[in-house]
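#lab-general

N.A. 3:47 PM
ok so I finally got the sequence cleaned up, no stray characters, all 127 residues accounted for. can someone with queue access submit it? mine expired

B.Y. 3:52 PM
send it over

N.A. 3:53 PM
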Amino acid sequence: MTKPAKLHKECNPPQDCVLLATETGTFDGDLQGSDFSGGATAFAESGHFVVGRTDLFRGTVRGCGSGTLVFVGTELADLHQGSGDWRIVEGFGTGDLAHATGHGTGRGTVDKDGFHSQYDGVIDCGK
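B.Y. 4:20 PM
back already:
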C-alpha cells in the first residue's frame, strides 16, 4: 500500500500544468521492502491522467537477495484505478541486486486507505 507523501503543481505561462509528487510505500510478496518514488502527472479533460515515475526500492527479492533497485514506469489511470508498465534500470542496483534486470506490468486501485497495487513481471538476478 502506498500513500502520497507530497504533491506540488507546476504550470508554465499558458497554464499547461503537471502535478509533481513523491510517495512512500512497502512491497509485500516476492519483493519485500520499502519504496520511495517521484513522478510527474499530466491530466486530460476526460478525467484520465498519465504518470511517469521513478521508484527506489530497498529490500529483498525472492531468489536474488537484498539490496536496492531503481524502477521506471508509466501509468494511465482515473480517480479509481489504473494500469501501466515498469522496468528495472540496469546499473543502478546495489548488493545482491546490483546486476538485476526485469520488466512487467502493474495495476491498481484507490480507496480511502490509499493506493493498492499489484505488479507482475520477471526479474533476472543477473548472477
